[in-house]
Amino acid sequence: MRASVKAAATALLGCALSGCAASSTFLAPSSPIASREAWLFWVVVGMAAVVFVLVEGLIVLVVIRDRQRGADEGEPRQVYGNRNLEIVWTAIPVLLVITLFGLTVGTMRAVAAPGPSSSDLNITVIGHRWWWEFDYPDLNIKTAEELHIPAGKNVQITLKSVDVIHSFWVPQLAGKTDVIPGQVNHMWLRSDQVGTYDGQCAEFCGAEHALMRFHVVVDSPTDFQAWVAGQQRPVPAAQTDQEQRGQDIVLRGPCIACHTIDGTSAQGTLGPNLTHLSSRSTFAGGAFSLTDANLRQWLKDPQAMKPGNDMVVALSDPDIEAVIAYLKLLR
Ligand code: CUA
Question: Quick check: CB of 128 below 6 Å from ligand 1?
Fold first, then answer.
């Protein structure tokens, strides 16, 4: 008995601690939406804690008191129904539920999207199995893995899916919104705190659901302008022989069937837009850091790194090095 209790406690603690390892919890809010949601959470936890302590406390009190009395006092006084008591324990839960309802509706109103304004940033987020596409229609930017937004600005997000139901979730910035094929959903974001926030698909969408990640980078307004300028800059031409060789492999091979590189013959739309790939910190659905070693492994055998994804390649080791040299140009 002791051992099983200990095992259960260890398992529970393990779950709780591993859940707390990352900072991407809604309990560390970095936006007005997430702050309000965290506030409601703590109010509910507080109310539940008061009820728990009261009810459990009374039970423990009665158990201790009646144990001390012993068995020789006979049956206690029998009480069948007590109108006042009945009224009290019906009224208190009803009041609690009404209060919770009011607080929930108030929170829903507080975090509802403000009406669109011309100063807002518009972004279309498209869910793919298993990566996120980010389109900035007004800025003519298409990217993936990293959603850049400027601090202090309302961002209106349009959510679409090309395949199955996904769910767009940045715990520290806002609650989840489903991304549904054939339906356009909307949500909004705003953060006044510069930083990078983890995002995750929150609806099971297949084998690599867990590796359908992304980051939201909240930039200062000047950093955001610099990022926009970088994304709008045309891709530089290959300089070295190695870059040229990589460019030939990419642009004359099957890569262009799925990927776009602006200003080139690569205009595929099945996979992430690679135009400014090397300006990002991750790739393959935010799953891996964008390092030479990871890219090398990915180009060697993408199915081993993320089984079931759409990427298929067959490149020799020297070709892989050339492709990496070319991809590094795409900043
Ligand atoms: Cu997309 Cu889970």
Answer: no
